[in-house]
Design a protein that fits this description.
The protein is built from three helices and five strands, in the order E-H-H-E-E-H-E-E. It is an alpha+beta fold. The protein has one domain: 2-Layer Sandwich (Heat Shock Protein 90). 26% of the residues are buried. GO terms for molecular function: ATP binding; protein serine/threonine kinase activity. It comes from Streptomyces sp. NBC_00180.
Length: 134
């Protein structure tokens, strides 16, 4: 579990963490790594732009899955909505808004939101992928 600073640079930090965890646990291809990095980047960016601190990242990779596959679970927990009623906050232009959820829809095998008493956890499961053979 990693507590990330509530600033834009944390998306890059989260991508590096995902890459490190996947390299340590699973020998997956570059496409799988890139997909997981993109999903975590979207989740962290959303937390930074639209929620209060803290931003907490949890990444679990399991290579013990049946058939030599690697499963990846990503969670980003934030402190709940930052905007007041009627207020909109975003660093992206209007035509770019909302693309992150579409990206996650395409790349993740499942995803969702879990409300907590102190914030919200957004999670995504990446499709199980075969580990590379040497």
């Amino acid at each position: 579990m990693w507590r990330l600073p509530h600033r834009a640079e944390s998306a890059g930090t989260a991508r590096r963490i995902v890459r490190l965890v996947l390299h340590e646990c699973c020998d997956v291809d570059e496409d799988t790594l890139s997909g997981a990095e993109l999903v975590v980047s979207e989740l962290v960016t959303n937390a930074i732009e639209h929620a209060r601190p803290p931003v907490v990242l949890y990444v679990e990779a399991d290579s013990s899955a049946e058939g030599g596959t690697c499963s990846v679970h990503i969670e980003v927990t934030d402190g709940g909505p930052a905007a007041q009623d009627g207020e909109w906050t975003s660093s992206c232009s209007e035509d770019e808004h909302g693309r992150g959820s579409g990206i996650i829809d395409v790349l993740a095998s499942d995803h969702g939101t879990r409300p907590l008493g102190h914030g919200v956890t957004h999670w995504a499961d990446m499709p199980p992928t075969a580990e590379q053979t040497p």
